[in-house]
From TrEMBL:
InterPro entries hit by this protein: Dpy-19/Dpy-19-like
Lineage of the species this protein comes from: Eukaryota, Metazoa, Chordata, Craniata, Vertebrata
Pfam families: Dpy19 (PF10034)
Superkingdom, natural source: Eukaryota
Species for this entry: Balaenoptera acutorostrata (Common minke whale)
UniProt-recorded name of the protein: Probable C-mannosyltransferase DPY19L3 isoform X2
Gene field: DPY19L3
Amino acid sequence: MISIRQRKGIQTTEVSEDYVAQEENVKLENKLPSSCTNRRLWTILSFTIGGTVALCIGLLTSVYLATLHENDLWFSNIKKYIEPVYFYIYTLFGLQAIYVTALYITSWLLSGTWLSGLLAAFWYVTNRIDTTRVEFTIPLRENWALPFFAIQIAAITYFLRPNLQPLSHRLTLLAIFISTFLFSLTWQFNQFMMLMQALVLFILDSLDMLPAVKVTWLYGIQLTGLLLVCILQFFNSMILGSLLISFNLSVLIARKLQKNLKTGSFLNRLGKLLLHLFVVLCLTLFLNNIIKKILNLKSDEHIFKFLKAKFGFGATRDFDANLYLCEEAFGLLPFNTFERLSDTLLFYAYIFVLSITVIAALAVAFRNLSYSTNQQSMYKMGEYTIGLKPETAYNLIHTILFGFLALSTMRMKYLWTSHMCVFASFGLCSPEIWELLLKLIHLYNSKRICIMRYSIPILILLYLCYKFWPGMMDELSELREFYDPDTVELMNWINSNTPRKAVFAGSMQLLAGVKLCTGRTLTNHPHYEDSSLRERTKAVYQIYAKRAPEEVHALLRSFGTDYVILEDSICYERRHRRGCRLRDLLDIANGHMMDGPGENDPDLKLAGHPRFCEEIKRNLPPYTAYFTRVFQNKTFHVYKLSRNK
C-alpha cells in the first residue's frame, strides 16, 4: 500500500509538473512577440541615441579645433587671399568631424555599445596634443588623409563580421574601396600605411583568424585603389614601384602555389607557414626589383636610404635621406608621450585591454595551428572557451603594428594614438573582454559583466570631464594673434612690385606661402616623392651651399627663375646640431667640409668658394654681375637674376 501510494504520488507529481511546464510554455509563447517587439524598440532607440551622439561629438570636436585655430592666429583679421583660404580651412575642419565620428563608430562596432564610442571621442580630444595637430599645421596632407583612413578601418571592422547580408556586403566593400582610394590620393605615405595593413591581413590569414575570401577582397581593393591613384597622378612612378603592389601580388601568387596550407599537425602547419612566409618575401623582393628595373624607377630611393641609416645599417650622405634623418618628427617617439597619455588614463586602459586580447589571440592562434581550420576562432581552456572575433583580431594586430611604427617614427604616432583611443574604449565596454577576465580569476557572473562594462567607462568619462573641462574652457577663452611682420612685408612687396608671371626660387616651406599669398610661379614645391623634383630642390638649395655665383645663377636660370629669396634663419641656422643644419647637409652632399668646430669625414675637402648666402650680401662685383638686391628686411633678402649672362 505504501509503495503504491508513493508511486501514485510520484505519478501525480510528474503529471502536475508536466502540466505546469506546458502552461509556462504557453505563457512564454504568448509573451515572445511582446519581448521581440521590446527588444526591437530598444535597438532602434539605442541606435538613434548613439547615432545622434556620434554626429554631435564629431561636430563639437570640429568646432573646438577650428576655434582654437582662430583664437591662436586670429585668421579672420587678415584682410587679403581670404575666401579661397577659408574654403580650404572649413573643409579640413569638416573632415575632422568625420574623423572623430569614424573613430566613434569603430569602437561602437567592436564593443556593441555607443558608450565606448563616446569614450573614444573624449580620449581623442583630451589627448589632442598626441592625437592630432590639425589646428596648427593645417596644410599637412595627413590631415586630409587620416579621416578617410579612419572610415576605412570602420568599414573593414564591419566587413569582417560573419554572416553579412548580400546588400550589406556589397555596400561595405564599396565604402572600403572609396575610403581606400581617397586615403591613397591625399597622402604621399599611403603605400607604406597600406603595406602595414596588408601585413595585418597576411598575419591573420596565415593564422586562420580571418576568412580567406574576405582577405582576398581586401588585397584586391588595395591594389585597385592604388593603381587608380597612380593613373590620376599622371602615372606616379613611386606607386608603381611600391612594395605594397609587389607584396599583395606575391601573397596571391603564393596562395596558388602552396596547396593545403592550413591542414596538418601543429609542426606540419608551422613548417608550411614558415615556407609560405619565405616564398612571399622572396617573391615580393623579386617582383619589386623587376618592376623598378623595367620602368627605371628611382622615386623612393631616398626612403630606403633613410630607413637603412635610421636602423643602423650604414650612414648615408644622400641629401634627401638626411633631410628626414635630421628632422625630429622622424626620430623615435619621446618617452614623455606616455606620461601625457597616462594622465588621461588612456595608456593604462590600452595596456590592460591589449594584454587580455593578446593572451586570447595567442591561445586562438595555437588552437588554429593545432587543429583543422574553423571559421570561428575558439580555444578550449579547462571548462571555459576563449574566442576572438575576426574584427577584434584585425584591430588587435593593427594597433600592434602601428604601435611599433609610432615608436620608431614620431610623426606616425597620430596613426597609433587615435586607434589607441578606439581600442582601449572598446575593451573597457566589451562583454567578451570582461567575460574572459572574470573567468580567468573565477569571478564570472553575467551581472558583474554588465556592471563592469558600463560603470568603469562612465567613471572614466566623469574623471575626464572633471579634470580637463576647466582647461579646455580656458583654452577657448585665450586669444592670440598671428604676428610675423617680416613675412607679411615680403608678401606685400611681391604682390606690389613683381609681375604676376614672375618665377620665384627659395625654400620649400617659404615658397608654399608665396604661392598661397601671391599666386606667383615656383621653381620647386614639397611633393618630395618625385625624383626629378627632389633633384630640382637640391639644385635650388645650392643658394645655401659653398658655390660660385655663376654656378648658382646657371642652376637657377635653368629653371626659369626671376627672383630668389634668401632666409637668414636658414643661412645662419642654430636650431639643428652641427651635421644636421641645411647648410651642413649640402656641404656633405657636395663633398665639402662643414663649418664650425667639430670633426669632418677624412675624404671631405675644403670648398673652393665661400658660402653663397653669406657672400652675396657683401655686394661684391662677382655677385652683383648676376644678382641685384631688390628687397631686404630683418629676415628675408630678395635678389633679381640678370638675364643677359
